[in-house]
Amino acid sequence: MHRVFQAFIDGLTASSDVDSLRTVLSEAGAALDLSCFAYLLLSSRKGGSPELISTYPVKWTDHYLRQNYQRLDPVIIEALATCEPFEWGYGFSGRRLSKPQHGFFDEAAQFGIRCGFTVPIHDGRGPVAAVTFAADERRPTFQRCIEQHRHVLQLMAMYFHTYARRRVTPDRVVDGATLSAREFECLEWAARGKSAWDIGQILSITRRTAAFHLDNAKAKLGVRSICQAVARFAAAKRPPD
Question: How does pLDDT run across 80-134, given as a tens digit for each residue?
């Protein structure tokens, strides 16, 4: 398990986009005999669409998002109500479900999604998220993995959320200050050692415009130098230990 977890962390660190994140968690799950997963991040905007990273069948996930099933899904409703990981099965372990919710489980079952283990994530920074490892039936290997590694799976879900949230909903809050998209972008390049002239070339803007955005970022952060701003940026964006 230690080897799987370390490979997972290394993969997250090296990930650059949603596809690479999907591959990282898929490979970790496969190593533990967990056949598929779904990460759902609810939108902070009323009526907004959720973000989904998943290895579920595409026909199902497309249908799920089109129908706004996150509002109906008993698993997500349970994740909204609790912070503790939980197991669920076809029929939701006898929970009282509405007729549409029974229909939802019937549809999911047609795509081989009949049971699972879900980790709710309430990070205090916005919308709730959930990571679910699912299977078409509660096989002994699936059950054994959940029983033996539920705490590690919860930790993996939290790490995954940290990286995925940054990829799908970039956080432009640095040390309590909300930067504009361009201010954040310029500061991010400055943190990589680029000068205002370099940043201008990279972003196809003038050096003066790049310097203007960096000055605005400094003012919002309450610092006098780019080095101080970069230090604040690096501290704010550092992944958890």
Answer: 999 999 999 865 555 688 999 999 999 999 999 999 999 999 977 666 899 999 9
Protein fold of 173-237 = Arc Repressor Mutant, subunit A (1.10.10)
Which part of the chain is CATH 1.10.10.10?
173-237
Question: Mean per-residue pLDDT for 17-41?
Answer: 93
Rounded to 10°, the helix 207-221/181-191 angle is: 100
Domain with CATH 3.30.450.80 in the chain: 2-168
pTM of the full predicted structure? 0.70
Contact 142, 33 (CB under 8 A): yes
Q: How far apart are CA 113 and CA 40, in angstroms?
A: 15
Which phi and psi angles does 34 have, rounded to 5°? -105, 115
Residue 240 clears pLDDT 60, i.e. is over it: no
Q: Which CATH architecture has domain 2-168?
A: 2-Layer Sandwich (3.30)
* pLDDT one-digit tens code per residue, 195-213: 999 998 888 888 998 999 9
Q: Strands 115-121 and 129-135, how do they pair? A: antiparallel
Residue type, 203: L
Concatenated DSSP letters for 179-193?
PPHHHHHHHHHHHTT
User: Is residue 38 within 8 Å of 58, Cβ to Cβ?
Assistant: no
CB 82 within 8 A of CB 120: yes
Both structure tokens of 62: 């497309």
Q: Which amino acid is at 191?
A: A
Tell me if 24 sits within 8 A of 11, measured CB to CB: yes
* φ, ψ of residue 99 in degrees (nearest 5): -60, -45
